[in-house]
Amino acid sequence: MRYDATTANAIEATGLVKRFGQTTALDGVDLVARQGRVLGVLGPNGAGKTTAVRILATLLRPDGGQASVCGYDVLRDAHQVRQLIGLTGQYASVDEGLSGTNNLIMIGRLLGMSRARARSRAGELLARFDLTDAAARPAKTYSGGMRRRLDLAASLVGRPRVLYLDEPTTGLDPRSRTDVWGMVRGLVADGVTVLLTTQYLDEADHLAHDIVVIDHGRVVATGTPDELKAKTGGQVLQVSPADQARMAEVSALMAGLIRAEVTVDGEAGVATVPVGDAALVRHVFRELDDRGIELAEFALRKPSMDEVFFALTGHRAEDEENGRRELEASSR
Amino acid sequence: MTAIQAPTTIPVPARRISPLGGLRNTFTLTWRSVLKIRTNMEDVIGLSLQPIMFLLLFTYVFGGAIAHGSTHDYLQYELPGLLVMTVVFATLGTGLMLNQDISSGVFDRFRSLPIARWAPLAGAVQGDMVRYIISVAITIGFGMILGFRVTTNPLSAIAGCLLLLVFALAMCWASALIGLLVKTPQGVQAFGFIAFFPLVFGSNLLVPTATMPGWLQSFVKVNPMTLLTDAERGLFTGGPVATPAVQSLLWALGIFAVFAPLAVLVYRRRT
C-alpha cells in the first residue's frame, strides 16, 4: 500500500477492541483523522480515550480491529509508525531527574541526531515553549504547566507528522490552557495532524476540525463541532417554577414548544432542555406567563459536558442509571 | 485539494533499526542513567555512606567479638565479603529505577520512539555499572584507610573487582525483574530486600561457615554469595582462587541466563 500524503487520512482505525480482564475499554471504535487537521476525541473519564491513543501510538496491542498511521499498520509496521508520531501523555512523561535541556537532547540523540544538532534543536524548542530560563534546572523543580510544555516539546523533537495529545490541558490553569491551545494551532499551521483527547467540550470546540465522542468504549457521535452543537442544541434553557406542583405542566409545555427532551431534576426542582433556536425561548416565557406560572428561575446557559452527553447518548456520562430514570421521567 | 497545505512527499521511514543504531540508543540511555546519578545527590550519598557504615559497623562493633579481639584480622577477612554485599545490594537500584521509569511514563515515551526495543533495559543496566564501580571503589578505599591491605598483588585485586562487576551485571537482571513485576518503588525496595537478604547473609560473607549449624552450612556452601566471597578472598588476601572463581562465573552465567530473558519477557508484556 503506497501512502499518498495529499489524499489519504493521517490516522485510520476501524473496529478497535481492547479488553482488560473483564472490562472492555474499547468496543469497536472507528476513527479517522484527516491530514493536517485536528481530530478531537471527546469523552468522560474512563471512556477509552487513552486506550485508543495508546494503541495508535504502538504502546498497546488491540484485541481486535486495525489501525494505521499515514498508511502504516500500527502492529505490522510499528517501527515506521514510531518515526512519524509524537506522543504527549496525560501525565507528563519527562524525566524528572534530568534538566529540561538534557531531556530534549536525550530524545534528539535517540532519534539519531548528532550531539550538536540535538543541542541546537533542544535550545530551539525550549525557546519556543518559553522554558529557556529553566532549561538547566531538573524537571522535578518545574511547575505543572512548565512540565506539560516540556513534555510537548519532547514530543516535537523529531518533527512528527502526527501528534497525539492525551488530555494536554487537564489540571492546567486557564492561562496555561490558552498557551497550549495556541501551540496546537501553530503546529496545525505547520501541517501536523493532531489527535487530541479531552474531557472539555469547549477545548474540542476551539481546536478540533472533527470530533469523535466516545462513551463506554464506543463512538456515540462524530462530526464537526458545528454539527455536534446542532445536535445538542447549543444552549440550555433552565426553568424552575415557584410552585413545584406545576413542574409536570412546565416540562410538558417546554417539551411541546422546543421539541427536545426535557430533563426534570425533582430534587433541585429544575427542568432543563437543550435549545437550538433562541427565538423559541421567548415563546416558552410568554406561554408560562399566559398560564400564570410564577417562576423561581428562568435562565439560558451553555450546556455542560453532562448535557452534551445526555443529548448525544441519552444517558448521563457519569451515572447511567440516573440518566435512564431521568429520560423516562422526561418522556412521560 | 485539501485546504491545509500538506507536503506531497514524506521521507519513507526505515523498516527497522540496525544493531548499530540499537547500540547507539543504549549508549544514549546509559548517558542518561549516569547523568541521573550525578544530579541525584541523595543517591550518591546513600551509595557512598552505606559501605562506610557497614565497614565501621562490622569492623568495630562486631569484629572484636567475631575475631576474638583483633579487629584488623577481621577487617582482612570481612572486606571481600562486604564488597560482595555492597555490590549485590547496589543492584537493587536497577529495579528501582526501571520501576520509576515505568510508573512515571518515561518508558512510554521511549517506546513511542523509533529506537531498539531492548535499548532502555540495556541502557539502565549499563548505566548502573557506574554505581557499582563507585561502591566498590569506596569500600576498598575506606577499608584501606581503616588498615585493610591487599596481600596478593594489584593485578589479582583488579581481577577481583572485575569478577564483582560481572556478577553484579548478572544479578541486576534479577533486580530488573523485581522492578518490572512489583507495582511501586516502595514495593521494589521491600521485596528486593526480602529476596536478597537471606542470600547475602546466609553465606560466609561475614563469618566462617564452620561456625554455623549443619543444616545452615548445607545452604551456605551452595550459596553463590559464598562462592563469590571465597573467590574475592583468594584474589585480595590469598587462598584458592580457581575453583570458587569458576563456580561464581558459572553462577553469574546461570543467573543471567534465567533472569535476563524473564525480565525482557515481562518488560515486553508490561510496557
Q: Sheet bearing the most strands of chain B, described?
A: none
Task: Please state the structural category of chain A.
Answer: alpha/beta
Provide the residue-averaged pLDDT of chain B.
88
Q: State the share of residues found in helices of chain A, binned by percent.
A: 25-40%
Q: What does the main sheet of chain A amount to?
A: 6 strands, mixed
Oligomer: heterodimer
Q: What class do helices, strands and sheet pairing of chain B give?
A: mainly alpha
Largest interface, Cβ cutoff 8 Å: A-B, 47 and 39 residues
Instruction: Count every beta strand of chain A, where a strand is a DSSP E run of 2 or more residues.
Output: 14
Average residue-wise pLDDT of chain A: 85
Number of helices of chain B: 11
What integer value in Å does the Rg of chain B equal? 22 Å
First-last Cα distance of chain B: 40 Å
Number of strands of chain B: 0
What is the string of helix and strand elements of chain A? EEEHEEHEHHHEHEHEEHEHEEHEHH
What does this molecule look like?
The complex is a heterodimer of chains A (332) and B (271). Chain A has helices at 49-56, 78-84, 100-110, 115-128, 144-156, 174-189, 201-207, 225-232, 247-258, 279-290, 305-313, 320-331, and strands at 9-20, 23-34, 38-42, 64-69, 72-73, 85-88, 162-166, 193-198, 210-215, 218-223, 235-241, 263-265, 270-275, 295-301. Chain A contains 12 helices and 14 strands. In chain A, strands 6-7-8-3-9-10 form a 6-stranded mixed beta sheet, sandwiched between helices. The radius of gyration of chain A is 23 Å and the shape is elongated. By secondary structure, chain B is mainly α. The two termini of chain B are 40 Å apart. Chain A binds chain B through residues 3, 5-7, 34-37, 54, 57-59, 70, 72, 77, 79-80, 82-87, 89, 91-99, 102, 106-107, 109-112, 138, 154-155, 158, 161, 188, 191, and chain B through 1-2, 4-10, 13-17, 21, 24-25, 28-29, 31-32, 35-36, 39-40, 101, 104-106, 108-115, 119, 271.
